[in-house]
Design goal:
This protein is about 15% helix and about 45% strand. By secondary structure, it is mainly beta. A hairpin with a 2-residue loop joins strand 9 and strand 10 (about 125-135). It is globular and about 40 Å long. About 30% of the residues are buried.
């Protein structure tokens, strides 16, 4: 399989943009992710996919809890910070929901407890049981990622 062609094909699937966050040793760690989806309504489960080479992998294994913050169109800079696209060090503040760090201003914040982790290829899939969530309808449109670029919803 041609890896470049595979990445190009997968880039044609428009996704929302999230920041996955956790806390280990009193320090918050986060990463931008679009490999996120709901799995089950009963029980309420979601999955996030973390690359084996990502620093976040060990934090997720240690903390066994995480938040998924669905970003608004106005939060592109936060996505870039947690994707390592902005090199200058920027301070990011977090709120807490259910004792887990969440990003203020996110369209939705989903707090989970890890119930399973499955290594598949070069990623680990973390299944999270939803413990808390908050939806902020008034935050506007979601941040979209398509074909390697940030996008916005069109009316």
């Amino acid at each position: 399989m041609n890896e470049r062609l595979f990445r190009q094909a997968m880039g044609k699937f428009a996704t929302g943009v999230t920041v996955v966050a956790t806390k280990v040793g009193g320090k918050v760690h986060g990463m931008t992710a679009n490999a996120f989806m709901s799995v089950s309504l009963n029980p309420t489960l979601v999955v996030v996919s973390i690359a084996e080479k990502a620093q976040m992998l060990e934090y997720m294994k240690k903390s066994k809890q995480f938040s998924v913050n669905i970003l608004s169109a106005e939060q592109k800079e936060l996505s870039m910070i947690f994707a390592g696209q902005l090199k200058e060090n920027r301070e990011v503040s977090f709120d807490q929901l259910g004792g887990v760090p969440v990003l203020p201003g996110a369209i939705a914040q989903v707090v989970c407890e890890v119930t399973a982790a499955h290594v598949e290829g070069d990623h680990t899939l973390f299944i999270g049981k939803v413990k808390e969530l908050q939806v902020n309808e008034h935050r506007g449109d979601p941040l979209i990622y398509y074909s390697g670029q940030y996008r916005s919803l069109a009316e």
